[in-house]
Fold this protein.
Amino acid sequence: ANLEGLVNLLHRASEKSGKEDSQQAEILAMVNKSIARFKTTINDLTDISRIQRNVPEDIEQINIAAIYQDVVEELSTLIEQKQAKLSFRDLATGKIQFSKAYFKSILYNLISNAIKYAHPERQPEVEIVLRNDGDDIKLTVKDNGLGIPAGKRSKVFEMFKRMHTHVEGTGIGLYIVKRIVENAGGKIFLESEPEKGSEFTVIFIKK
């Protein structure tokens, strides 16, 4: 926060004096971008620390459709930028007792990844489906993106691992998802085919 404040002060001072040239403006923009990445990493590490230490206290019967709409609103800029097509179906007849914040984190990470790693030659399509799986509930998030090579799939859920380096990110979103799911007694699986897309499956244990 201090670094960000000082850079903004420098930028305003340069503008006020009329001495900021294009090179200075470019450098300041690069510094601000680095600070933004640093803040994201700090926030992600804070999330990891919280997930590893605590059991969430906000366990309740959640409104999945409402949480999905919140995620879509937060991702609206990315969805518009990529012209992504999303479909959501809730076919589950049971209810999930879960942390609203953690369920939102799962949806957000899976959907945002599906859009970010879109195939450059086709419109991104993401299908989100909830259905019953015996006594439990299964969530699938399927995309038509770049897919993940077989040799890299085992590392997808590791901390700081990124399967495609051309997309910005800290590489901990899927690690967080796996920790949330497993801490709640659930399971997460991945099926993927390079150049065709990926499908993440989460099993929620009904309580």
